[in-house]
What we know:
4 strands; about 10% strand
Amino acid sequence: MPSGNPSVNPSGKPSVLFVCVHNAGRSQMAAAWLTHLAGDRIEVRSAGSNPGDAVNPAAVEAMAEVGIDISAATPKILTVGAVRESDVCVTMGCGDACPVFPGKRYLDWTPADPAGRGVAAVRPIRDEIRTLVEGLIEEIAPEATV
Length: 146
């Protein structure tokens, strides 16, 4: 049973929220990488303060090239609840304002914005985000060694 503290994640797993303005490129790729690489060890959310209408097609294509399908993902609005339920909030270099709760970890990653770029320009952004996500996994939920 979770404690009475509303900021405690009830699943007991670490939870990460990726935030960018439109929730259409960087935060979607980061969420997909984290889900792909960490499996069910980490709860993953993504959101934006002004969500776009659809995920960036170049981001969808770049992720498909590495075997990750984000074509069904949809941009979501950032809510106070999403922040409250997350242990780590990662803003994606866009200066987005996040509600601040005590006990949360806040990170700001600064990969380039893929908006308006073709897939060739999005590939290095995708790869940079993967590297950042791998480092985060090692910090908050490393694989158990036998």
